[in-house]
Write a structure and sequence with these properties.
The complex is a heterodimer of chains A (116) and B (113). Chain A has no helices and 10 strands. Chain A is an all-beta fold and 116 residues long. In chain A, the strands form 2 sheets. In chain A, strands 2, 4, 5, 8, 9 and 10 form a 6-stranded mixed sheet that branches. In chain B, the strands form 2 sheets. Chain B has a 5-stranded mixed sheet with strand order 1-9-8-3-4, with no helix packed on it. A 4-stranded antiparallel sheet of chain B has the order 2-7-6-5, with no helix packed on it. Chain B is globular, with a radius of gyration of 14 Å. Classes of the chains: A mainly beta (116), B mainly beta (113). Chain A binds chain B through residues 4, 31, 33, 35, 42-43, 45, 48, 50, 59, 91, 93, 95, 97-98, 101-110, and chain B through 32, 34, 42-46, 49, 93-105.
Chain lengths: 116, 113
């Protein structure tokens, strides 16, 4: 079946511009995560959505970052006034969440963001 | 979540079995062992997970020792496309709750032709 998809696959932007990154989770998955991964680094958690509950935003690095999930499916991560340190691969993952005890997360291919 | 220890790198000849070890000596009874891998420039890929019994799927086998303090991921016939960083993660599975993943350094597996 279809996996997690993300768009765009690559995004180059100028410092100070806003960007939007999109994630389409696996159909039926109630949990959705955003992570980022800088070159050669591990995963950095950003935000987590579970069904209709309030999102866990504890990983967002600054108020320039925000995310929404409309209709419990597609999610958009927005970065305002981008900075060079925002350059990274932004990964989205989805899982059955509270529908499953084991909560296996499945990742999308990521969006590579480069801020010039 | 319990801490895991993996060797930083391993080589394996193409067509041979790749055995990737993971130590998790502080694992508790309700923690699962998960394996993910990340091929260069791709998102992490789920491989397999288990609690205490050995598990097998189309990708790999997971062998967990009886005391659960270590495990081995086995790729039975490694191919060049299996070259990736392999992450062993131990985490609690809480019914009704989902939590973010934390990857350690992992093992860089290089499959040699």
């Amino acid at each position: 079946g279809a996996g997690v998809s993300q768009s765009p696959s690559n995004k180059v932007t100028e410092k100070g511009k806003d960007v939007e990154l999109r994630c389409d989770p696996i159909s039926g998955h109630t949990a959705l995560y955003w992570y980022r991964q800088s070159l050669g680094q591990g995963l950095e958690f950003l935000i987590y959505f579970q069904g209709n509950s309030a999102p866990d935003k504890s990983g967002l690095p600054s108020d320039r970052f925000s995310a929404e999930r409309t209709g419990g499916s597609v999610s958009t991560l927005t970065i305002q006034r981008t900075q060079q340190e925002d350059s990274a691969v932004y990964l989205c993952a989805s899982s059955l969440g509270s529908l499953s005890q084991r909560d296996t997360q499945y990742f999308g291919p990521g969006t590579r963001l480069t801020v010039l | 979540d319990a801490k895991t220890t993996q060797p930083p790198s391993m080589d394996c000849a193409e067509g041979r079995a790749a055995n990737l070890p993971c130590n998790h000596s502080t694992i508790s009874g309700n923690e699962y062992v998960y394996w993910y891998r990340q091929i260069h420039s791709q998102g992490p890929q789920y491989i397999i997970h288990g609690l205490k019994n050995n598990e097998t799927n189309e990708m790999a086998s997971l062998i967990i020792t009886e005391d659960r303090k270590s495990s081995t991921l086995i790729l039975p016939h490694a191919t060049l496309r299996d070259t990736a960083v392999y992450y062993c993660i131990v985490r609690v599975a809480i019914p009704g709750s989902a939590r973010q993943l934390t990857f350690g350094s992992g093992t860089q597996l290089t499959v040699l032709p």
